[in-house]
């Protein structure tokens, strides 16, 4: 008879696209959904309260876009950031903040590096050395950590190559590379517009980004070391990397590079968690046994519901307990 463990090895929280702002509700760009900017803060508060009361999660993956770009119109970016960070004050778990496009509408990369949203700087070590958080490149936010022996989490910086907002200096090689990629693929004056782009090429808009060769190389090396150690790996970023897990306009520019790497390490990679596409999505890459989970965006959740979750990690499965618009799921 198969004996299943009752308790998970460990658990973590997930939430995406809070996009808080002290702003009146308004429709999104395509006029299809309402964004509830103020209410988003209460939904974040409810999620944090849920995790505190459950008293079982070790950490949260905050999957990016924690405040909205429209805060800049009122010069309110710092206040908005202060308000969301206050929700996490004194919590009994670690919070890993991932950077999305809205972080760069509000702040420069150098500002973010010095802020509490730069969680790669934390180095926490437990007795068995499994909670070490390792920062890599000097001006990038990708890193890895091991919350539990035998498990590794990888945080990607999906806007490493980007033209978003004020993130990258216009003279930086990364900004120039992003501009070259976009101008070659997108002939519109307004680079956020997908007009004239067909199929998967609709991802070549300015609110997406790409990952540079240095980061891709680091991802390969980190997975290689994890494989040698016999670890299982969960990867996260703001932007989806599988075309079947999201609306194609929200895909990472060089999603195929990342997918190839994840698939090369399909023996150890369990899942990829992200946000960005506010509709949310899910795809099981059955050939490689990798789960791609795109969380619904909190900012577009009407009052009375929510969109966050808790993932229990067992030796043979991840069990995602969704609240509100995030579906619950057992991922073998
Ligand atoms: N078709 C579009 C869509 C957007 N824009 C402009 O791009 C900027 C970012 O858009 P925004 O909807 O705020 O980005 P999110 O990250 O919140 O959402 C991504 C997906 O849309 C969610 O499903 C902003 O300046 C828009 O005005 C555009 O020009 N054309």
From TrEMBL:
Organism: Branchiostoma belcheri
Keywords for the protein's UniProt record, in alphabetical order: Hydrolase, Metal-binding, Zinc
Annotated protein name in UniProt: Manganese-dependent ADP-ribose/CDP-alcohol diphosphatase
Family annotation (CDD domains): MPP_Nbla03831 (cd07396)
Enzyme Commission number: 3.6.1.13, 3.6.1.16, 3.6.1.53
Superkingdom, taxonomy of origin: Eukaryota
Assembly information from the UniProt record: Monomer.
Gene3D superfamilies found in the cross-reference section: 3.60.21.10
Gene this chain is encoded by: LOC109483378
């Amino acid at each position: 008879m198969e004996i299943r463990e009752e308790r998970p090895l460990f658990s973590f929280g997930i939430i995406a696209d809070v996009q808080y702002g002290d702003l009146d509700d308004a429709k999104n760009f395509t006029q299809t959904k309402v964004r509830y900017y103020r209410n988003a803060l209460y939904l974040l508060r409810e999620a944090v309260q849920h995790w505190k009361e459950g008293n079982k999660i070790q950490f949260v993956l905050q999957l990016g876009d924690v405040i909205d770009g429209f805060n800049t119109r009122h010069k309110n970016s710092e206040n908005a950031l202060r308000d969301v960070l206050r929700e996490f004050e004194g919590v009994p778990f670690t919070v890993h903040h991932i950077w999305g496009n809205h972080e760069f509408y509000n702040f420069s990369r150098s500002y973010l590096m010095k802020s509490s949203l730069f969680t790669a700087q934390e180095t926490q070590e437990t007795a068995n050395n499994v909670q070490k958080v390792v920062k890599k490149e000097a001006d990038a936010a990708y890193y890895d950590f091991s919350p539990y022996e035998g498990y590794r989490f990888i945080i990607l910086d999906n806007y490493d190559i980007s033209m978003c907002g004020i993130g990258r200096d216009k003279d930086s090689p990364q900004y120039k590379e992003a501009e070259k990629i976009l101008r070659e693929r997108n002939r519109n004056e307004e680079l956020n517009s997908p007009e004239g782009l067909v199929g998967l090429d609709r991802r070549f808009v300015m609110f997406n980004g790409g990952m540079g060769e240095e980061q891709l190389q680091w991802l390969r090396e980190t997975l290689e070391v994890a494989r040698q150690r016999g670890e299982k790996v969960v990867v996260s970023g703001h932007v989806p990397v599988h075309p079947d897990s999201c609306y194609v306009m929200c895909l990472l520019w060089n999603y195929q590079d990342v997918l190839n790497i994840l698939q090369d390490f399909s023996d150890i990679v369990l899942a990829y968690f992200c946000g960005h596409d506010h509709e949310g999505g899910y795809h099981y890459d059955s050939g490689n046994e990798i789960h791609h989970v795109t969380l619904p965006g909190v900012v577009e959740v009407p009052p009375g519901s929510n969109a966050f979750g808790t993932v229990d990690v067992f030796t043979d499965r991840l069990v995602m307990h969704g609240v509100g618009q995030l579906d619950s799921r057992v991922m073998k």
